[in-house]
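PROTEIN FOLDING TASK:
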Amino acid sequence: MTDEGVTAEVLILQNLGREQALAEKLEETAVQDIAGAMSQMPAENRLQVLRALPEERRADVFSYLSHGLQREVIDELDADEARRILKALVPDDRTGFLESLAPGDLEGFLKLLEPDDLKQSLKLLGYPEESVGRLMTTRFVSVRPEWTVTRALDHIRHEAHRGETVNFVFVTDQRGKLLDAIRLKDFILARQDVRVESLMDEDVIQIEADADREQAVQTIQHYDISTLPVTDRSGVLLGIVTVDDIMDVAEAESTEDFHKFGGSGRLNVSMREASPVFLYRKRIGWLMILVIVSLFSGLTLSMFEHSMEAMIGLVFFLPMIIAGSGNAGSQSATLMVRALATGDVAASDWLRMWGKELAVAVLLGLTMALMVAAIGLWRGGSEIGYELALVVGLAMFTVVILGGMIGVLLPFLLQRFDMDPATASTPLITSIADVGGILIYFSIASAMFGLPGGD
């Protein structure tokens, strides 16, 4: 059943006052679907649904709500209810909620935590933003290499409730240093009297807690694993990152890049929850920057005002020329930003990518130049048809190459200065390419037709 279907059925049961039927419905519904239904309900209905859930399921449902909705829901609860939910959350989900709060609000929620949970949360929040350390859970099960398989399995059964997953069994020494990660299947199939060390190959994939989350995404995708151990710089096992967390990160990073590439700021809330004022603040900055950049287009046009007056027919081709430059740049930048984000291309590949894009831009430029030259030949007629075709064809060929070069190099340049390559947004690329396209087009036209030059 869809979220809308669950929402409708739950609301009907609530309106009819059928509490037992509501509890049974919620019991048979997945926590993800309950969270989806709650996001579409009025505030008073959300609270009733949460309280109708068994104690052990409330935190699970809460963890699947968006951060903005989590804050609304927990504000409606009394202190004891909020404390129980925060305590029941797994460490990475609790950290995700806490890091979404404003500094002034964070202190109040930290006071609700018990000493051990508070210490753990402060430790995780102490890692850099967007780091793996804030994403990991510290709930894992580890065994010793000198143990027998029988003892290790007994330990896993006894401690399984402490671990978020036991698909992999982590082997650590007495200092906690990670030695290996062995599949649970290997333990089950092994002879029960052999030592754990006999199952080890010491070829363990791991990541440091200070690493960027995107690196964790790339590592899990590359090695096709479901669990990634997180260590400190000495190799001591601190926690794990699971594939469900990585999927959330991958989606968030892709969404963030998409927003930036569209020329808006990062949205930390869903569009459904975002207020008009919030969306205004996220978009107005880029629009003001682009207005300033576009001023250069106007100044460039004013430089060739006399050229346009002398030959008004040039204006007919102006939209084609600047669109060709901007579109070529946008295509190139889109491909390059995505390649950098996925790790398909590294910063050191800039020269090779530049050469490849130059070859592509030349082919694209030739094709588009022939097209607009044919239009120029028709538009100019018998008097200036050949000259006009040459001007617009040469201009189109040049601006397409210019746009491609801007699009391929700008993401690398931004990364070189530790800026997000996605900042090379489509509106920015287009605005820069417009200025160059206008300058090139009228410079060629002025030279070919002997028109008044730029002032």
